[in-house]
Design a protein that fits this description.
By secondary structure, the chain is of the alpha+beta class. Among the domains are: 289 residues, 3-Layer(aba) Sandwich (D-Maltodextrin-Binding Protein, domain 2); 114 residues, no CATH class; 106 residues, no CATH class. The strands form 9 sheets. Strands 14, 15, 16, 17, 18, 25, 26, 29 and 30 form a 9-stranded mixed beta sheet that branches. Helix 17 packs antiparallel against helix 18. It is globular, with a radius of gyration of 29 Å. The two termini are 54 Å apart. 57% of the residues are buried.
Length: 973
C-alpha cells in the first residue's frame, strides 16, 4: 500500500517521538562529549591548546585551529584544500584564483581577500567555537559590513552540515532556513534566512556576458540562474522543485529540501511545516548574518551541536565501523553581487539605501562561494551500555563538576573497553542529601562544594543521620555571569556608514547591579509592563521611575559605555537566565551581594533614597539579612497569574515565569545565551497558541534574537562560560573598582585565601575573598560515603586517583581538565591522594584514623578555622599541579609531578592538609537551623509545570523549545 504524505508525517512523528525518547535516555545517562575549546582573542595565561590559551576563560586558539583563505576555502576532511574532485575533475578551488574563468568569477573580487579562522576543529562536542575573520576589498583596504536601515552587503552566513568526507556537504545537508527565524526582523532581508527563492527568466542578463542589472524585478529579488529547474531550456534536475513545494511552483521558484542524515528519521523536507520536524526558530544553530567592523575584522561564536541536540545531522554519532561521524562548518560570504549578476547600487547614495542582498545562501550560485571547514567530533560514550552485568559505579552532584567528571569518565570507560562504566548525573544538592541519608543507596559518591546536608540546614528542615563521609578535593571552578551582546551602534564612526556591535570584552557588574537584576527591579522584567499595549500596562507602582532594563541603569552605563542603552538601537534586556534550584551556588552569589551594607539595606527595603526602588515583594523576603538564602525566586506579585479574563477570552497579564523563564540547567542557559534564544513569551496573545494547562490561547513565544538586536545573559558557571565561549562579567565592588574576572591568577588567589568550614572543606568567602581574588571561586569535593561495598569503594578510589592526577592535565581530549577549571594546587593533590589511600584501606577492612569534625551547635562560618585547614602564605596563590605535557600558569612555579607519594597522616589545625577529611554523622547541621524561605511551590512540581507549559505553549517543544538539554562541548575565540 502506498504511503501518503499524511501517513509519512504521522510516521515521522512516531519516529521522532522515539528519537526524542532515545535522546532523553542518552541525556539521562549523562551522554556528552569531552571538552572542546574556546575563544581566541586576548590570550593570556596557561597554554592548554594552541598559542596563548587561557585555561580559566577558554580564550585562545586550540592546537587544531584552522585559518583558511577564501581562494582555497573548499577543504576536505583533513582540512586541507581540495585539489581535485573524487572523479578526477578540475580542482574546485581553481575558479577562485585571479585567472578564474567560471560563470561566477565576477564575485571573486569581493571575496579574494577574505581570511577566516575557526578556533577548534578536533575533539569538538556540544559547545561553541569561535569564527573570526579579516576582510579586505580588492584594493587591500578593510571591508566592513555596509548597512542602511539594515544589513545590506559584506556579511557572513554560517551553518552546520553533515556531508561527504572528501568533497564536503551539499546544501541539502545543512541546518539552515528555520521557519519563522526572521519574523518581524528589520535588520536584514528575511529572504536571506530561507531555503527558497525565485528562478530566473530569459530576460535576465546573465554572467559571464557582463555584470548586468535585471530588467523587471527579478534581478534585485535575487533569482539564481544556476539553480537546476525542469524548464524547457534548463537542466532536467528536478531535485529542488519536485515534489512541488506549495506556493513556489506557480511562481517559478526553487525550494532546496533538507535531507536528514539517516533516512529512517524522515523524508526530505521542502515546506516550512515539514522543516520544523527537524529544526525551527527556537533551536537552530544557524547564523543569519555575522557582521564585520569598519576595521575589516569580525567575530562570531558558533554553536556546535551533537546528534543529541540535532539528530538529523548526526554529528558525533558512532558509525558502523566504530568511527565517529564528523560534520562541517559552512561559511557563505555575501558581497555586493547576486548570482544573476545584479550588483547593488551606490551605498552612499540615499536613493539606493534600500539595496540589500536578498537571496538564499543555499542557492547554487551563492553556495559555490562557500568556505567549508571540517569538524572532527569527539566520540560520545553511547556505545557503553549502562546496567546488566557490567560494573557501573554511579556518581552524581553539582553542575560545577559535570564537565570535568564526564571528561574523566569517558577516558576511564574507554580504558576498560566498557568493562567498567562510570556514570555521573547532574542533580540538585537536595537529591545528593536524599541519597546519602538512605541506607544502602548505590549512589555513593556526590560532588559538592559544601558538606552534604547543608541544604537541609539552609532550609531549616530535619536531617536524618548521615553515614561517614570522606571528602576528596577534585576541582576548582566558580560561578559568574555570561553575556551575548550584538547591537548596532546608533552613532557609527564619523564619515562611515559601517557599524559593528558584537561585544567581545568582559561586561562590568557590581553587587548593586546584580541585586537589581535578579529581583525584578527593572520595568521590562515585570510581567504586567507592556507600554505598547492599548491601553498601556505600566507595571507595579514601585517601579514607575526605575530603568526599563539593566543597560539603561546609570551605574551600568558608567561602567560599560560601549554598550547601547535600551531604546534607539539598543536591545532591551531582561534579567539573566537561572534555574529553580536551591543551591549553595546561589547562596554564594547572595553572600557576595550582601558584602556591601548598602545592598543589605536596599534588599530589605530600608534604603528609601535609592535611585532604583526595590520591589516590596522582594523586600518582604528579607534577603539582605539572611546569609543562608540560596535561590533566585520570582517574587513579584504577578507570579500567581495568569488571571483569565473570561470576558475578553485571554489572560490579563503574563506570569513572571513567562517573562523570566527558568532554564533546566546552567548549561542549558549558557546554550541559550550563545544562540541568543530568550525562551520567553511576548505580549502577543493568540487564540491559536496553547496555554500551559492545555487550553486554547496564550502569549506568543519569542524566537532567536536577530544580529544587531541581541542582549541576553545568564547566571553561569565558569566551565560553561568557557565551554560555550560566552563573554564573562568582571565582578566589581559597588564603587566600580577592584574588578575581577575569572583567571588563573584570580582563582589561585581565592584558593589561597580559602578557609575550612565545619567539615574541613575549604570555602572562599565571597564578601572578602582576599586581594586579587575572584569572589565566586569554589573548591569542588567528591563526597564518598564509606558504608558502600568494598568493590564500589575501590571503583571510586580508581576514579578519583585518575581525576586528581592525570585528570588535571589541561586539554581538549577525553580525560583532560576542560576549560573553566583551575588545576588543583599541589597541596590539594597531595591531600586527595591521601584520601584515595584511605578509601582503599576502608575497602580492605583496615582501620584508619581521622580528624574529628567540629560540632559547633551553630556551625562554623566560612572564615573560621577548623580541622585540616589549608594555609598558604598571606596573599600568595597556591601552586597548581602541572602534569606532564601542560604548561605552567604565568606567575607560578611548577609543582612536583602528580601522583608522587603523599603522606596519609592527619593534618594539625592550621597546617597544610596532607591527610583525608573524614566527616562522621553531622549533628551540627541539624543543630543550627534557619527559617524556611517562602519562595514558592515544591521544586519538582514547578519543574513539571514548567516543562508542560513549554511543551504546550511552545508547540510541543521540549525543555529548550524543541531541543534536548544541552551538554558540554566548547567555546569561543
Amino acid at each position: 500500500m502506498a504511503v501518503t504524505r499524511r501517513d509519512s508525517r504521522a510516521l515521522a512523528i512516531l519516529r521522532w517521538g522515539g528519537t526524542l525518547l532515545a535522546a532523553g535516555a542518552l541525556v539521562a545517562l549523562g551522554v556528552i562529549t569531552p571538552p572542546g575549546t574556546a575563544r581566541a582573542s586576548n590570550p593570556t595565561a596557561a597554554d592548554g591548546g594552541g598559542s596563548g590559551y587561557d585555561q580559566l576563560t577558554g580564550i585562545g586558539s586550540t592546537s587544531s585551529a584552522v585559518t583558511v583563505n577564501w581562494p582555497t576555502g573548499l577543504l576536505n576532511a583533513s582540512n586541507t584544500p581540495i585539489t581535485s574532485n573524487t572523479n578526477g575533475e578540475l580542482n574546485p578551488n581553481s575558479d577562485r584564483g585571479p585567472s578564474g574563468g567560471s560563470d561566477l568569477s565576477f564575485m571573486n573580487s569581493d571575496f579574494e581577500n577574505l581570511s577566516v579562522t575557526v578556533s577548534q576543529t578536533q575533539d569538538v562536542g556540544h559547545g561553541g567555537v569561535t569564527v573570526s575573520w579579516n576582510w579586505e576589498n580588492s584594493q587591500k583596504q578593510p571591508q566592513g559590513t555596509i548597512r542602511g536601515s539594515g544589513i545590506q552587503a559584506y556579511f557572513l552566513q554560517m551553518m552546520e552540515c553533515y556531508g561527504d568526507a572528501s568533497t564536503g556537504p551539499s546544501p541539502e545537508d545543512c541546518e539552515f532556513g528555520a521557519p519563522g527565524l526572521a519574523a518581524g526582523n528589520t535588520t536584514f532581508a528575511p529572504s536571506i534566512t530561507q531555503r527558497q527563492g525565485p528562478l530566473c527568466g530569459a530576460n535576465i542578463v546573465q554572467p559571464p556576458t557582463g555584470v548586468g542589472t535585471a530588467s523587471g524585478g527579478q534581478g534585485s529579488a535575487g533569482c539564481d540562474p544556476f539553480e537546476p529547474t525542469s524548464g524547457p531550456s534548463q537542466p532536467t534536475d528536478k531535485s529542488h522543485i519536485d515534489p512541488c513545494p506549495q506556493g513556489n511552483c506557480s511562481t517559478g521558484g526553487y525550494s532546496i529540501p533538507f535531507v536528514p542524515v539517516d533516512p529512517s528519521l524522515g523524508d526530505p523536507a521542502y515546506e516550512d511545516n515539514d522543516i520544523t520536524q527537524y529544526f525551527n526558530s527556537f533551536n537552530t544553530n544557524e547564523v543569519s548574518a555575522a557582521t564585520t567592523g569598519p576595521n575589516g575584522q569580525g567575530q562570531q561564536q558558533f554553536e556546535t551541536d551533537t546528534f543529541v541536540q540535532a539528530p538529523a545531522l548526526g554529528c558525533g554519532q558512532q558509525e558502523a565501523d566504530g568511527s565517529t561521524q564528523g560534520c562541517w562548518l559552512v561559511i557563505v560570504p555575501r558581497g555586493q553581487f547576486e548570482p544573476n549578476g545584479f550588483q547593488l547600487g551606490n551605498f552612499n547614495s540615499s536613493a539606493n539605501a534600500a539595496n540589500e542582498i536578498v537571496s538564499s545562501p543555499l542557492s547554487a550560485g551563492n553556495w559555490a562561494q562557500r568556505i567549508q571547514v571540517h569538524l572532527s567530533y569527539a566520540p560520545l560514550p553511547s556505545f557503553c551500555p549502562v546496567g546488566g552485568n557490567i560494573d557501573s559505579p554511579e556518581m552524581e552532584g553539582t553542575t560545577l563538576a559535570t564537565r570535568a567528571v564526564q571528561s574523566w569518565e569517558i577516558a576511564l570507560d574507554k580504558q576498560s573497553d566498557c568493562g567498567r562504566i562510570y556514570h555521573e548525573t547532574e542533580v540538585s544538592e537536595q537529591q545528593v542529601t536524599n541519597n546519602f541519608v538512605t541506607a544502602g543507596d548505590t549512589v555513593g559518591l556526590g560532588f559538592t562544594t559544601d558538606p552534604i546536608g547543608s541544604d537541609r540546614k539552609r532550609l531549616g528542615t530535619f536531617l536524618p543521620t548521615l553515614p561517614n563521609i570522606v571528602y576528596v578535593p577534585v576541582a576548582v571552578a566558580g560561578m559568574g555571569f555570561g553575556f551575548h551582546i550584538d547591537e548596532y551602534q546608533s552613532a557609527p564612526p564619523s564619515g562611515t556608514n559601517y557599524s559593528y556591535g558584537y561585544l567581545t570584552q568582559p561586561v562590568k557588574l557590581t553587587q548593586q547591579l546584580v541585586a537589581r537584576a535578579i529581583t525584578q527591579a527593572y520595568l521590562y522584567d515585570l510581567p504586567d509592563y507592556a507600554p505598547e499595549a492599548d491601553p498601556p500596562v505600566l507595571g507595579g507602582q514601585f517601579a514607575q521611575h526605575n530603568p526599563v532594563g539593566i543597560s539603561n541603569d546609570p551605574v551600568f552605563q558608567q561602567l560599560n559605555p560601549e554598550i547601547e542603552p535600551a531604546g534607539g538601537n539598543g536591545t532591551i534586556p531582561t534579567a539573566p537566565f537561572d534555574t529553580i534550584d536551591h543551591t549553595a551556588l546561589y547562596q554564594q552569589v547572595w553572600n557576595w551581594i550582601q558584602g556591601d551594607p548598602a545592598n543589605v539595606a536596599w534588599l530589605d527595603g530600608k534604603q528609601s533614597n535609592s535611585a532604583v526602588a526595590v520591589d516590596p515583594d522582594y523586600a518582604g523576603l528579607q534577603i539582605g539579612a539572611d546569609p543562608n538564602f540560596d535561590s533566585l525566586p520570582r517574587a513579584y506579585k504577578a507570579n500567581s497569574c495568569p488571571v483569565l479574563n473570561t470576558a475578553g477570552g485571554g489572560p490579563q497579564s503574563r506570569c513572571s515565569t513567562d517573562v523570566l523563564p527558568y532554564v533546566a540547567s546552567l548549561d542549558a542557559g549558557s546554550a541559550d545565551v550563545l544562540t541568543a534564544n530568550p525562551t520567553n513569551y511576548n505580549t502577543d496573545w493568540n487564540i491559536s497558541n496553547t496555554s500551559p494547562d492545555g487550553t486554547p490561547g496564550y502569549w506568543g513565544k519569542n524566537g532567536i534574537e536577530p544580529p544587531g538586536r541581541v542582549f541576553i545573559w545568564s547566571v553561569d558557571d565558569t566551565p560553561s562560560l568557557a565551554g560555550y565561549g560566552i563573554v564573562p562579567a568582571e565582578l566589581c565592588d559597588d564603587s566600580g573598582a577592584n574588578c575581577m574576572s575569572p583567571s588563573v591568577q584570580s582563582f589561585g588567589a581565592a584558593v589561597a585565601n580559602a578557609k575550612p568550614d565545619s567539615a574541613g572543606l575549604l570555602e572562599v568567602n565571597p564578601a572578602n575573598p582576599g586581594a586579587g581574588a575572584y569572589p565566586l571561586t569554589d573548591i569542588v569535593y567528591a563526597a564518598v560515603r564509606t558504608d558502600e561495598a568494598p568493590a564500589l569503594l575501590n571503583d571510586y578510589a580508581d576514579f578519583l586517583s585518575f581525576a586528581v592526577n592525570q585528570g588535571q592535565a589541561e586539554g581538549q581530549q577525553a580525560g583532560n581538565l576542560p576549560a573553566g577549571y583551575l588545576p588543583l594546587p599541589s597541596t590539594l593533590v597531595q591531600q586527595a591522594n591521601a584520601d584515595v589511600t584511605k578509601l582503599r584501606q576502608i575497602a580492605s577492612g583496615q582501620s584508619t584514623s581521622s580528624p574529628s569534625a567540629s560540632t559547633s551547635p551553630s556551625g562554623s562560618s566560612p572564615t573560621s578555622g577548623g580541622p585540616a585547614a589549608a594555609t598558604f602564605p598571606p596573599g600568595a596563590a597556591p601552586q597548581p599541579n602541572t602534569p606532564a605535557g601542560s604548561s605552567p600558569a604565568a606567575g607560578y612555579t611548577p609543582s612536583p609531578a602528580a601522583g608522587a607519594a603523599a603522606s596519609t597522616s592527619a593534618a594539625a589545625p592550621g597546617s597544610t592538609p596532607t591527610g583525608p577529611v573524614i566527616e562522621p554523622p553531622t549533628a551540627q547541621l541539624v543543630a543550627g537551623t534557619t527559617p524556611g524561605q517562602p519562595v514558592g511551590p515544591v521544586r519538582n512540581v514547578i519543574v513539571v509545570v514548567f516543562i508542560i507549559g513549554i511543551a504546550g505553549a511552545g508547540g510541543g517543544l521540549l525543555l529548550r523549545n524543541g531541543r534536548m538539554p544541552r551538554w558540554p562541548g566548547r567555546s569561543r575565540q
